[in-house]
Amino acid sequence: METVVTDPVVGLVLEGRYRLEERLARGGMSTVYAATDLRLHRTVAVKVMAEHLAHDPAFVDRFTREARATAMLSHVNVVSVSDQGSDQGLVYLVMELVRGRTLRDLLQARGRLTVGEAFAVLEPVLAGLTAAHRAGIAHRDVKPENVLISTDGQVKVADFGLARAVAGTGQTSHTGGVLIGTVAYLSPEQLERGRSDARSDVYAAGVMLYELLTGHPPYAGDTPLAVAYQHVHHDVPAPSAEVASVPWQVDELVTRTTRRDPAARPLDAGAFLAELTDVRADLGLARVPVPTGRPADNPTATLRPTNRPTAPRPRQPSSPGPRDGDPRTEVLGGMRPGRGTTVLPGTGAGATTHVGGARPAPVRPGVPSHIRRRRARFALALVLLLAVTIAAIGWWLGSGRWTDVPDLVNQDQDTAVGMLQEAGLDPVFGEEQFSEDVPAGVVISAEPAAGAEAIRNSDVELVVSKGPERFSVDPALVNQPLEAVQAALEGVPVALLSREEFDSDVPAGSVIAFEPAAGAPLKRGETVTAVVSQGRAPVDVPNVVGQSPDAAQDNLEQLGFTVSRDEGRSAEVSTGAVMAVSPGPGDGAQPYGSDVTITVSIGVPQVTVPDVRGQSAEEATAALEAAGLQVQSETFIAGDRVFNQSPKAGEVVDQGSTVRILISFG
Questions:
Q1: Which helix (H) or strand (E) holds 116?
Q2: Are the CB atoms for 59 and 175 separated by under 8 Å?
Q3: pLDDT tens-digit series, residues 352-405
Q4: pTM score, two decimals?
Q5: 606-664 — its CATH code?
Q6: What CATH number labels 402-464?
Q7: In angstroms, rounded to a whole number, what is the distance separating the alpha carbons of residues 500 and 508?
Q8: Where does residue 659 rank: exposed (0-12), middle (13-18), buried (19+ CB within 10 A)?
Q9: Higher-confidence position of 395 and 476
Q10: Which helix (H) or strand (E) element contains residue 442?
Q11: Quick one: 13 exposed, middle or buried, by C-beta within 10 A (0-12, 13-18, 19+)?
Q12: Is 261 a catalytic residue?
């Protein structure tokens, strides 16, 4: 009884949204499932990382990088990624589902393609890579397995798992010291130095073009190391060496895009696509549909291989020899007598061939006439080839290998590169420079200069402008302490000055604003002034004498003062009212938040009753009134001396109280 092995992942619902329905493909690092998006009711592809790699941070990072890199792209020839996450121990990303097959499947079914079919496949691949390169992303794993062809012939580039921003390190991803990628398509710089950029994708696409035309990659070996050695030390052969029908223009395109020196290749996929378009125009090549590997009348059927890779066909053995005296007709491998050709029997060496009924002249015994004609044509072609070669060598050694450097200054970068390529020169780029006069992306200088003679295919170094050099102060530094601002601007080549202002909102010592304003473009060495807060401005103390203590305190606190209370006595201010404030209105403006004391009256002043006994009535009255007391005198016995007083001497009474004095004889 046959045992059915089911995938335990099928049927799971990830994040409550993606239900895995069917396993589509499985590799060493991940498995792809068809899934239903339960939220949007659509079918998607879900790539799930292999379980043994889900706990490896390096591979999880690669998975996340693939999602982010592809999500940056929006192009009809790139498989879109819509989501990424982890659930139930599975790390996954959600992609567009492409119903069809990979380019590898097509090559296995069809073998090599025609030139028109190869161009039809490669053009959308390069269009998708162009979008990635213009977004600053290099794919780094271009190969037939990562090219999808839908059932309706749409071509899409997939699997940006090795992609990395070109502006980054450019290092080819390693895991445990093992180079990740497919060695049959890795460029020499990836294999030698672990570095890659858009030109590495160009190399891989060039190798893929070779494979489309011949049915197999250019290099084979018993081990990956043997294949890598050939990439590093050998040039990719011309496809026409195996498929004679491949035009020389296509051979040259393969050669240009697979040069071992990255600087000698097209700059990116866009440049490759432009050259491919030019070759199509030169050949007058008609556009053909993208081959899907399925017959039109039965799209679900799989084609059997029809044009496997060709190799030099062995010479077919001659037919069984005739008897002595019979005519001998030699037929070369792959050739048969054509229509209108009749082989007549003869005797011995006198056998002749009639074409269209006409009898040709006798031929030399043993050598058929068509072979003699072929040899004559070959000899003539060889002579002409030698003559052309000698002339070309003479031209090349003379003036042909030299070309004039075009005027590249003030041309934008893409235009300058095109002008150099038209002149047969290769652009290399020096370090970009700032310029006050030349806009960003425009050539400042070229070496050799315009008009100089240079050997074809030699380098011309271009220095491209980065535009005016400008700096700016981060707006986030506003409201920061001056010390923090000074530290943040240490690496900015501007002169920082400061001045102080009072400000009600910004704490003392912090920056209120910059002059010029934060974020404004600044030239190197330009002065920037930081306006630093001194805190709130000083405030005049108002006159609150006569107010109730609570009202006076509220008025002072609203102005920012800290209020304290004291008590005192006043003859002028009612009890319970403010009789004095310190500092007062006449003491000038006071710092914000300083202390102000209000004195609250608790009554009139008190005095000590003086002793006026024995004094004359006039003297006693004068002394008591001087102490702020009122006097009421009474005469007990005729006389002029104070005999007694009330309140008594030494008692403390309110100022203005009445003291009774008793007058008697002395």
A1: helix 115-134
A2: yes
A3: 333 333 333 333 444 455 566 667 777 787 777 786 777 666 655 555 568 889
A4: 0.46
A5: 3.30.10.20
A6: 3.30.10.20
A7: 9
A8: buried
A9: 476
A10: none
A11: middle
A12: no
Backbone angles phi, psi at 149, to 5 degrees: -120, 115
Alpha carbon distances (Å) from 423 to 253, 254, 279, 398, 440: 17, 20, 17, 17, 24
Q: Return d(Cα 458, Cα 172) in angstroms, integer.
A: 28
- Give the position of tokens 């401005």: 537
For residue 285, the tally of other CB atoms under 10 A from its CB is 17
CB atoms within 10 A of CB 522: 20
Quick one: tokens of 273?
A: 């696509």
Q: What is the architecture, at CATH level 2, of domain 100-283? A: Orthogonal Bundle (1.10)
Q: How many CB atoms lie within 10 A of CB 417?
A: 22
Are the CB atoms for 188 and 232 separated by under 8 Å? Answer: yes
351: pLDDT confidence band, cut at 50, 70 and 90? very low
Eight-class DSSP state of 648 = P
The token pair at 39 is 């939220």
CA distances from 54 to 61, 92, 293 (A): 10, 10, 35
CATH number for the segment(s) 13-95: 3.30.200.20
Which member of 141, 159, 201, 503 is catalytic? 141
Q: What is the location of CATH 3.30.10.20 in the chain?
A: 402-464, 475-533, 539-601, 606-664
Rounded distance, CA 163 to CA 204, Å? 14
62-79 pLDDT, tens per residue? Answer: 777 767 767 778 899 999
CATH topology of domain 539-601: Trypsin Inhibitor V; Chain A (3.30.10)
- Structure tokens of 604? 């009139």
Beta bridge partners of 253: none
Q: Please give the CATH topology (third level) of the domain spanning 475-533.
A: Trypsin Inhibitor V; Chain A (3.30.10)
Residue ranges of the chain that CATH labels 1.10.510.10: 100-283
Alpha helix (H) ranges present in 222-303? 224-233, 248-257, 269-283
- Residues whose CB is less than 8 angstroms from the CB of residue 381 and which lie 6 or more positions away in sequence, other chains included: none
Buried/exposed code over 578-599 (b: 16+ C-beta within 10 A; e: otherwise): bbbbebeeeeeebebeeebebb
For the chain, how many residues are written? 666
Distance CA 296, CA 299 (A): 6
Q: Mean pLDDT lowest for which of 225-239, 318-332, 476-490, 643-657?
A: 318-332
| 261 torsion bin: left (phi>0), alpha (psi -120 to 50), beta (else) | beta
Sorting pLDDT into bands at 50, 70 and 90, what band is 408? very high
Do the Cβ atoms of 94 and 43 come closer than 8 Å? no
Phi and psi dihedrals of 410, rounded to 5? Answer: 70, 10
